[in-house]
Amino acid sequence: MFLPRDPTYASLADECARAGVGISLVVGCRRWIDLGTLGVLSNTTGGEIVFFPQFSAEKDGPALVTRVRRLVANVTAYDCSVRIRCSKGT
């Protein structure tokens, strides 16, 4: 039930993950939306899904602005490595 209906999104997600691109989705709608298909993008690339069901600008507007600002300002790093060199202290 939560698998993508269209394999295009899964292949796009794999390609983005290989390139080190993370996809976060901010979804706000009043109609039905297939998050099982779109969610594979965020799930595979390490992003997140922010969902506002029955979106209303008056009710959800401030929370939407806050979440988008946080997503844009978030610092993320991929494929990092740390090297530590130790000596005997002499």
Describe the structure.
The protein is mainly α and about 90 residues long. Helix 2 links the parallel strand 1 and strand 2. The longest helix has 17 residues. The radius of gyration is 18 Å and the shape is flat.
Largest sheet: 2 strands, parallel
Q: Give the strand tally.
A: 2
Instruction: Tell me the strand percentage band.
Output: 5-15%
How are strands sequenced across the largest beta sheet?
A: 1-2
Envelope shape: flat
Mind telling me the C-alpha Rg?
18 Å
Q: Please tell me the overall pLDDT.
A: 84
Q: Which structural class matches the secondary elements?
A: mainly alpha
Distance between the termini: 63 Å
Binned, the helix content reads: 40-55%
How many structurally independent domains? 1
By DSSP (H or I, 4+ residues per run), the number of helices equals 3
The run of helices and strands is HEHEH
Q: Segments where pLDDT lies below 50 for 5+ residues?
A: none
Quick overview:
With 90 residues, the chain is mainly alpha-helical. It is 46% helix and 11% strand. It has one domain.
